[in-house]
Amino acid sequence: MPKFQFFSYLCIVMKKIGLTILFFLSAHVLYATHFKAAEITFIYSGGGRHDFILTTFTAIPPVSFADNDYLTINWRGIRGGGGTLVVPRSFVRVDASTMIRESRYEFYISFPGEGTFFISMEQANRNGGVINVPNSINIPIFVETSLVISSAMGTNSSPILLNPPIDQGCFGIPFMHNPGAFDPDGDSLSFRFIPCRGADGLDIPNFRLPSASDSISINPVTGDLIWASPQSIGDFNIAILIEEFRNGIRIGSVTRDMQISIQHCNNRPPELFAPEHLCVFAGDTLRIPVRATDLDPTDILTLSATGGMLAPIRNDAVFTGSTGVSPVYDTLIWVPQHSDVQQQPHPIYFRARDNGTPNLNALRTTFVQVIGRAPAFDSIVPTFDAISLHWTPVSDESVLGYRIYRALSRSGITQDSCEFGFIDANYQRIADLRGDSISVFVDSAVSQNFLYCYRIVRVYRNGTLSQMSDEFCTSLLSKTSIIEKVSIVETDENFGEIQLVWRHPLDFDVTTNHDDFRYVIHRLTGQNFVVLDTNQIQDTTFLDTQLNTRDFPHTYKIELIERQDTSWISRGFSSQATSVFINAVGRNRRVNIAVLQTSPSWITERFEIYRKMEWQSNSDFIFVGYTTLPNFTDTTGLINDSTYTYKVKAFGRHFNERINDYVLINWSQKVNATPVIGPPCVQQLEVFPNCNPLQNQLEWWSVGGDDCDDENLTFHIFFSTAKTGNFTRIDSVNFGNTFIHQNAFVGCYFVTASNERNYFSEPSDTICILFQQFHDECMHFEIPNVFTPNGDGINDEFKINWRYPLQNIVVFTIRIFNRWGNLVFESNDPNFEWDGNNQATGRPAPDGTYFYVIEFTLPGGEPFIRETLSGSVTILR
């Protein structure tokens, strides 16, 4: 009876014999063999609700008569909670050409709170005959999806898998598959193989990946599965774990359990050509050219593409899907919006499918990075007290707002067309503005006569940043004086002098009615500023006297005051300005000079260093060098124990670019320094042993800093046979940094250095060559176990074949005994040769086995290393 007639007959019988047999048959159908593939995905639909879709692929008659109008879903939380759902089928589609049924089961879960949750389906059974699943006909299919619910991470939808988990390939021909995953939230995806799972969610016993002629692998970034190449005919199942990450934290996963059918075929797969990486600005039109070819000239090729922008829920990209004989061309056209801006690139999965038997595919993934174009400043308007920034906003609900960054100088850093986010470390974030339509920011945390540079970046709701804007720089309108000089005229502990010079405000007229304005000079004393004097408005200089300029820097600010009726009111202060202060420290034939403080009112770009002998009070300073950094080392012709006087000339420019072409020149105080010889630098030691000839080569080098002496040193080598032994100086080296210790291998070394004043450095680390290393590397020899003293010139003597320099053996003894323990041969020569005669009688020893004991002593250890070897040798004549 045909199978379908048998099942029709069973249905009639069941109606007649009642419910008991119905239960029996239902149980039987429950364990029918038919599942090929499955996966569970979900989207967050709001209000704490997650909508899930379980997709299954099963065999249809005559392969299997089993079907499932309902499936059971289980869910559980790590911290507790869980449940079971019986879910009806909501969609079914049958492919008669492949005998496969696609079914979908839709359900939703409102989880009880935050935590990690697992949603799974286990159902009997898989289809029979799966090559890499032992006894697959009795193995259930199990798939699981996980998600993390966290207010800190935000809402989440799983990756959507656009390519079905059923595929086919040819024996011996490379196979490719891609799940076609895209993440609606723009999260980062990672792909890897895991074992297929069965009963109770456990790994299937003895499951293995399909065998390959070369390899089977999955790209963790693109999801490209490459099987090179199938070596068996039949069905194979693999499981792919697709994990999603947000800010480096795992927030969910989907398991795809898929089936690949391999068969014999003469068809050859097509080839597909598309770019791998592209970037595009939101709002611009992207065109991606695609080309497919096939070595089988009569095959009809069909191009297709999947991706988030092509999904039915969006469908805002165009790809017609050309069909024809090789070659076939098409172009994907997409205008991404601001809602498409995200950290992760958008994957687009292109496929070329032929009409051969079976249909074979070529896959190509193109990653498209959608970038938010940088906001552009419309204007930046300075006033006396604030700077207003104006830009054109993007009114889009995907835009969260804007970030404002500020720097005190230009950086000149730019981004290329595929970079996004804020990359300029010279800037600091000063404001976060909420709202997509905001277009103005007023910066009032600014000071007179400083240069302020700004950048702006758009912030999207998913946390992604647009490109950063070009930098735009300006200064407040100037209403205060501008200090140009704080220069030390006289260095002294009590009678030092400093010259101050400033200029009038740039944008505030104080000269027309000069009697109504005055300048007040303030100096920082302790924690507070004190008033030194008041100048007429025409006088923009001041000499501050009776100062300790030798030991301290001094800071000033100039206040502008205006007469109002009978009183004077303040119109503001200049920026603070500080005298240049230096420190000088003598070392061996050098002096290290550090500029410890320069003025915050301007940019210091160059320091010139001047020097003279301290006792040459009436001589001029000579120029010895310059630096753009706040430190300098003078090594020019210095003599130890001689005292030198230094001063530094600093060159700067204003922050305010309206006057930054004016060079500011200020002198530091004078300071004395004496080069002296200090202790030598500590040495770093390495020891390189050698077996033939037996010796150790020592090399060392200085590891000290600027505070130690590393010139004209003598190096002293110390040796001991053990690390805890008594070290003895074995030699000293005046030139170079190497030493060879002859006829030594086992032992320990350290090195010290001394200079011309007989100062000694600390010892280097102790380096030891241990006996085990000597034994493993040098003690190589062969002792034969048989010889034939018959006079034929071949193997006539018993001897040791040494691969070790014998001159290094201190003591050697060999004794050979017969089976009764009688001595037949003895020697103290490591180059001995026994001819097989009894040494006492001179007669040939009888054939048979003889026993030897060898003792020898090697240099090293405390004080020597003794080796004892024993064995046997056989005489055959």
Write the layout of secondary structure elements.
Elements: H1 3-17, H2 19-30, E1 35-46, E2 49-59, E3 70-77, E4 82-95, E5 100-110, E6 115-123, E7 141-149, E8 160-161, E9 166-170, E10 175-177, E11 181-182, E12 188-194, E13 212-218, E14 225-230, E15 234-246, E16 249-263, E17 271-273, E18 277-281, E19 286-293, E20 300-307, E21 317-318, E22 323-325, E23 328-334, E24 346-354, E25 361-371, E26 377-382, E27 387-391, E28 399-407, E29 428-434, E30 440-443, E31 452-460, E32 472-474, E33 482-490, E34 496-503, E35 517-525, E36 528-536, E37 541-547, E38 555-564, E39 567-573, E40 577-578, E41 581-587, E42 590-597, E43 602-613, E44 622-627, E45 631-634, E46 644-654, E47 664-667, E48 671-673, E49 683-690, E50 695-702, E51 714-720, E52 728-733, E53 738-742, E54 747-754, E55 767-769, H3 771-778, E56 781-782, E57 786-787, E58 801-802, E59 811-817, E60 823-827, E61 848-859, E62 864-875
Parallel strand pairs: 9-16, 18-25, 57-62
Antiparallel strand pairs: 1-2, 2-5, 3-4, 3-6, 4-5, 6-7, 7-16, 8-11, 10-14, 12-15, 13-14, 15-16, 17-19, 19-23, 20-22, 20-24, 21-23, 24-25, 26-27, 27-30, 28-29, 28-31, 31-32, 33-34, 34-37, 35-36, 35-38, 38-39, 38-40, 41-42, 42-45, 43-44, 43-46, 46-47, 46-48, 49-50, 50-53, 51-52, 51-54, 54-55, ...
The portion of residues assigned to helices is under 10%
Categorize the overall geometry: flat
- The number of helical runs is 3
Radius of gyration: 44 Å
Q: How many strands, what sense, and barrel or not for the largest sheet? A: 11 strands, mixed
- What is the total tally of β strands? 62
The stretches of 5 or more residues where confidence is low (pLDDT under 50) are: 1-32
- Structural class, judged by helices and strands? mainly beta
Mean pLDDT over all positions: 90
Alpha carbon gap, first and last residue: 88 Å
Strand content: over 45%
